[in-house]
Specification:
CATH architecture of chain B: Orthogonal Bundle
Shape of chain A: globular
Radius of gyration of chain A: 19 Å
CATH topology of chain B: Globin-like
Distance between the termini of chain B: 28 Å
Number of strands of chain B: 0
Oligomer: heterodimer
Strand order of the largest sheet of chain A: 4-5-7-6
Radius of gyration of chain B: 18 Å
Largest sheet of chain A: 4 strands, antiparallel
Strand content of chain B: under 5%
Number of domains of chain A: 1
CATH architecture of chain A: 2-Layer Sandwich
Number of helices of chain B: 7
CATH topology of chain A: Muramoyl-pentapeptide Carboxypeptidase, domain 2
Structural class of chain B: mainly alpha
Order of helices and strands of chain A: HEEEHHHEEHEEHH
Helix content of chain B: over 70%
Helix content of chain A: 40-55%
CATH class of chain B: Mainly Alpha
Distance between the termini of chain A: 51 Å
Chain lengths: ~220, ~150
């Protein structure tokens, strides 16, 4: 016997936490953007991201990619904490008890609502130890100059850190396709650092995504 | 509020409303008492109607897992709430743009099967609680939900 009253939390029926009109709130007069929980949101113009890339390249040269990756890892760590807090509070259950489908959808909606583009989690190679994240219309790829290898190091760091926390193991992320190189999407492979060495080497050699996948799965 | 009225309001500085525009507004204003009454019924009898659906669905779908049934019922609760708000504000897009896409993605194949029975039972319920005029306000929303979540 199902009790419908028990499906309602207080007076609320949880739907899509990241539904844009409900999630983003603003006080134009105060110049404030907040999410539905009252946490501050920050609007970042493309120019700032471009400037960040350029300044880091000038100041740190080749190390810029590592700096961005590590910044992404810090960001991913805090993002995971906030994300799981939001979901736990809203859906009334710990993330560990949530269906993976709902968790993935929330992440997809969260990505889109924050203006980070379209997010897709592909679990097709999960049994081989790889998770794949595909993003499209990424604001972090758009301002990149024309590159000869995938260069969304900030996003790679965010994803590595976020999924490491989710999996409870230290994972890394290697980007194997990039919108800045004319690809229709950014593709990140996540897995144990040891297992992803062939992917990193393939990227350094300038291989395309298909060739890198054959190395990983071969 | 419905799109046409929103557009008219947004263009206040451009021109006065023509008679045809005012008729649109008048017709909305005239429909408000019926909209309010429908909203109140859906609000006050939400639990009664959806509980009857839950009881009927549990009997009709013994093979469907309780978790899938609960998911489908939670979806129905959301649909009823968005329908109620859509009726009140005469906004048919509210349900479609804000909820149905999400519910479609959350639904698994078993939820779809459950929805088929659930919406059949829900339609029987609303016919018992709403007048014909109120049904006319609700029906377009429910049909949209059924088309998206079942077919």
């Amino acid at each position: 016997m199902i009790s419908v009253a028990e499906l309602i939390q207080g007076d609320r029926v949880p739907g899509n936490y990241f539904d844009y009109p409900s999630y983003v709130r603003g006080e134009l007069e105060m110049g404030l953007l907040e999410n539905r929980r009252g946490d501050r949101l920050l609007a970042v113009p493309d120019t700032l991201i471009s400037a960040l890339y350029e300044a880091l390249a000038k100041e740190t040269g080749q190390a810029a990619r590592l700096v961005l990756f590590n910044c992404g890892k810090w960001w991913g760590k805090s993002f995971y904490t906030r994300f799981t807090e939001w979901l736990t509070e809203y859906y009334g259950m710990p993330v560990a008890e949530m269906e993976m489908q709902l968790f993935g959808l929330c992440l997809q909606e969260c990505w889109r609502t924050h203006g980070w583009g379209r997010f897709e989690l592909d679990m097709a190679h999960q049994e081989r130890g790889f998770l794949v994240v595909k993003t499209r219309n990424s604001p972090y790829a758009k301002p990149l100059p024309k590159m000869n290898q995938p260069s969304c190091y900030l996003e790679a760091g965010v994803l590595a850190s976020f999924f490491s926390r989710l999996a409870g193991r230290e994972l890394t992320a290697v980007q194997i396709a990039c919108e800045s190189m004319g690809a229709d999407r950014n593709e990140f492979v996540l897995g144990l650092p040891e297992r992803l060495k062939p992917a990193s080497a393939g990227v350094e050699e300038g291989l395309d995504r298909e060739a890198i996948w054959s190395r990983l799965l071969g | 509020m419905n799109r046409e009225l929103q557009d008219l309001i947004a263009r206040a500085e451009e021109r006065f409303l023509a008679d045809g525009d005012l008729k649109l507004l008048e017709s909305y204003v005239a429909s408000i008492p019926e909209r309010l009454a429908t909203y109140r019924i859906l609000r006050d009898r939400e639990l009664t109607m959806v509980q009857a659906v839950a009881d009927g669905a549990s009997e009709a779908l013994p093979g469907v897992a309780e978790a899938d049934l609960k998911k489908a019922l939670q979806g129905l609760l959301l649909v009823v709430r968005y329908c109620a708000m859509g009726i009140l504000t005469d906004d048919e897009n509210l349900l479609k743009q804000r909820l149905l896409g999400w519910l479609e993605q959350v639904s698994g194949p078993d939820t779809k099967k459950a929805n088929e029975v659930i919406y059949k039972l829900f339609n029987q319920q609303v016919r018992q609680h709403l007048s014909e005029g109120q049904m006319n306000l609700l029906q377009p929303f429910i049909t949209t939900a059924q088309v998206t979540l079942i077919y």
